[in-house]
Design goal:
Layout: H1 3-17, E1 29-30, E2 39-41, H2 43-50, H3 55-65, E3 76-78, E4 82-85, H4 89-100, E5 115-119, H5 131-149, E6 153-157, H6 166-177, H7 180-185, H8 187-204, H9 206-220, H10 224-248, H11 265-274, E7 278-281, E8 284-287, E9 301-304, E10 307-310, E11 313-316, H12 324-339, E12 343-349, H13 353-366, E13 373-379, E14 382-383, H14 400-418, H15 424-444, E15 452-453, H16 456-459, H17 467-477, H18 479-483, H19 502-511, H20 514-524, H21 528-547, H22 556-579
Parallel strand pairs: 5-6, 5-12, 12-13, 14-15
Antiparallel strand pairs: 1-2, 2-4, 3-4, 7-8, 8-11, 9-10
Helix pairs in contact: 1-3, 2-3, 4-22, 5-20, 6-8, 6-9, 8-9, 9-10, 12-13, 14-15, 17-21, 17-22, 19-21, 19-22, 20-21, 21-22
Bound molecules: arginine.
Arginine binds at residues 119, 122, 124, 159, 161, 328, 331, 346, 348.
């Protein structure tokens, strides 16, 4: 909140000392070591080095030109040429008062909104959403919320796998083995059964394989009967997906599956061939390296046994069918033409890294004028307690639906145990929020590129860095609210609130960094920054709550200040959890 103001003033001072300095690199950041102050800049050392100046001399010069006395204690120079800022208590009191009045929540909306397309979740038709789609769904939804909170335009796009070779087998299964009662009861399970059955038959009997292939060709050439069955499979899957998304509170602006791009694929390949980017190779068509990138960075080359070889990006198979790659090229083109995005994020697991590097590189060659940022926001796996990929006891992949049910059941046992007197419907509602919140948080908390071990006990624990702990902290921030009439009236607050106790000041300082934390999430695509921020907020609140009585404080001004701190903490914690996709509860 104050950070952008300090940064602006610092940049003005630097510009007056060094008129040619690149101000975009003159940044203010929260201090890594709180004993030095609240904020710091490290930029002067770099600027001095480039100019062969004495960094401490430059720091002194900038300090003299810096006008921040209305916000900070006198600015300190430390180390080789850091400037350290410590916010005055009076300023903290002013910012907390204005937040309590509802003027802001420590977040400054951007003045330069970007258009960000986020491709996430993207499950496959006729198959259940499994753990691999969980992280994509939670990460993508959270990133969309963070970008929106900061004032960016976001388009969320669910790139469903609704086209491709699996439909040949599904069509054979549909005609030979369909159990309509099972389909009505659990369509995805029945379609999954059909697929597995025919897949096994194909392995034993080449004539089944041929039939699957010819059904696929019929579908792709628009055979009305096959198209109707395919549409029904798609519709049934979408009902299941929508049901899960509703339970998770996840929304998409558009759902454009792979099939949407099918009519464009032949054109993509023709254009790439005409531009000399793709060429025929062993009956297929593929993109090869053009040698412009250093060998080690070139995704179209691979080192095998010490030798660099072609690692082509296949855009047409030898049987004439198109690839995942072709669809993704057409998709990129469509997104570019439709939304003119500044940034496109693809949220999938780590194994797709090569695919996206090849895609981005190929697209940039095809469309040299394309300048948007393309980012594969990849993530690691969820592991079972034995350290191997998370599976059910019988060795099957874990389905998201089952995971949600179990989370709610386990949370219900906890909630009912703690609040035996609540009506059962309310216990269920609280359990739903806690169970699903706990799953999401456990997934967002680790560095997204590391694998994490799934543990019910850990993610549902009421203490430690977990969603239930934060949801519980939230209920405490709301306890004054429940006292109604006894609490100080926050409608008319003084300009600045008296913040004196160490716990009050530390809580206030941390509240100020909410907006900065959200910005950090968007620059690295890492929601774990927000998780850790909220965990620390809850810790500081708890220190404050235990040491600074609110209603029992002697002095009315102190009562008001503390009540305002509770209110503002509550809003930041509630908003922060909401941005993680986690619902709050009033009691638990
Ligand atoms: N359907 C794919 C899968 O389940 C993910 C698609 C990701 N998005 C994309 N544009 N390729 O792995």
């Amino acid at each position: 909140m104050l950070l952008p103001i300090l940064q602006e003033r610092l940049q003005a001072a630097v510009a007056s000392a060094l008129p040619d300095a690149d101000l975009s690199r003159v940044l203010v950041r929260p201090c890594t070591n709180a004993t030095h102050g609240d904020y710091e800049t490290t930029a002067l050392m770099g600027l001095a080095k480039e100019r062969k100046m004495n960094p401490r001399q430059l720091a002194t010069d900038v300090q003299a030109r810096l006008d921040v006395a209305d916000i900070c204690e006198p600015v300190q120079i430390s180390g080789a040429g850091f400037l350290n800022f410590r916010i005055r208590s009076e300023t903290l009191g002013r910012v907390i008062a204005s937040a309590a009045r509802g003027d802001h929540l420590f977040v400054v909306k951007t003045t330069r909104p970007r258009t960000v397309v986020i491709d996430f979740s993207s499950p496959n038709v006729a198959k259940p959403l499994h753990v691999g789609h969980i992280r994509s769904t939670f990460l993508g939804d959270c990133l969309a919320r963070v970008f929106r909170t900061l004032g960016h335009r976001v388009v969320t796009d669910n790139h469903i796998g609704d086209w491709g070779t699996q439909f040949g087998m599904l069509l054979v299964g549909w005609s030979d083995h369909l159990d309509t009662a099972a389909l009505a009861a659990d369509p995805i399970a029945e379609m999954e059964r059909l697929y597995k059955l025919v897949n096994a038959r194909c392995k034993e009997d080449p004539s089944v394989r041929d039939r699957a292939r010819s059904e696929l060709v019929k579908l792709q050439s628009g055979d009305p009967e096959n198209l109707a069955i395919w549409r029904e499979m798609q519709r049934l899957s979408q009902v299941q997906f929508d049901n899960l998304y509703t339970r998770l509170g996840v929304q998409f602006d558009v759902t454009l599956g792979e099939s949407f791009y099918n009519p464009k694929l032949a054109g993509v390949v023709a254009e790439l061939e005409a531009a000399g980017i793709a060429r025929a190779s062993e009956g297929a068509v593929a993109v090869f390296s053009d040698g412009t990138l250093p060998t080690k960075e070139d995704p179209l080359l691979i080192n095998r046994d010490g030798e660099w070889q072609a690692n082509p990006f296949l855009v047409r198979k030898s049987d004439g069918g198109f690839n995942y790659a072709t669809t993704d090229l057409a998709t990129l083109e469509h997104r570019f033409n439709t939304w003119a995005p500044d940034e496109i994020l693809y949220i999938t697991g780590g194994p797709q890294q090569l695919h996206f590097r090849q895609l981005f590189q190929t697209y940039r060659r095809w469309r040299p004028g394309f300048t948007a940022r393309l980012e594969h926001v990849w993530f690691g796996s969820i592991l079972g307690s034995d350290g191997t990929p998370f599976k059910t006891r019988s060795g099957e992949t874990v389905k998201l639906n089952d995971l949600l049910l179990e989370a709610e059941e386990r949370a219900f046992v906890i909630v009912a145990g703690k609040n035996p007197d609540l009506p059962e419907a309310e216990q269920h509602e609280i359990a739903r929020r806690i169970g699903i919140g706990a799953l999401k948080y456990a997934d967002l908390l680790p560095n997204r590129q590391s694998d994490y071990v799934f543990s019910w006990d850990k993610l549902l624990a009421l203490t430690g860095n977990t969603a239930p702990y934060l949801q519980y902290a939230y209920t405490r921030t709301r306890s004054l609210q429940r006292k109604g009439g006894e609490r100080p009236d926050l409608a008319s607050l003084p300009d600045s609130l008296p913040l004196v106790a160490r716990e009050e000041l530390e809580l206030a300082r941390h509240l100020l960094n909410f907006g900065f934390t959200l910005e950090a999430v968007t620059s690295d695509y890492r929601p774990n920054f927000l998780c850790n921020y909220l965990y620390e907020l809850a810790g500081r609140f708890s220190q404050f709550w235990e040491n600074c009585p609110v209603l029992k404080a002697e002095d009315p001004a102190t009562r008001t200040a503390r009540a305002a701190l509770c209110e503002v903490t509550s809003r930041v914690l509630g908003t922060g959890l909401n941005i993680l996709g986690i619902e709050t509860v009033e009691r638990m």
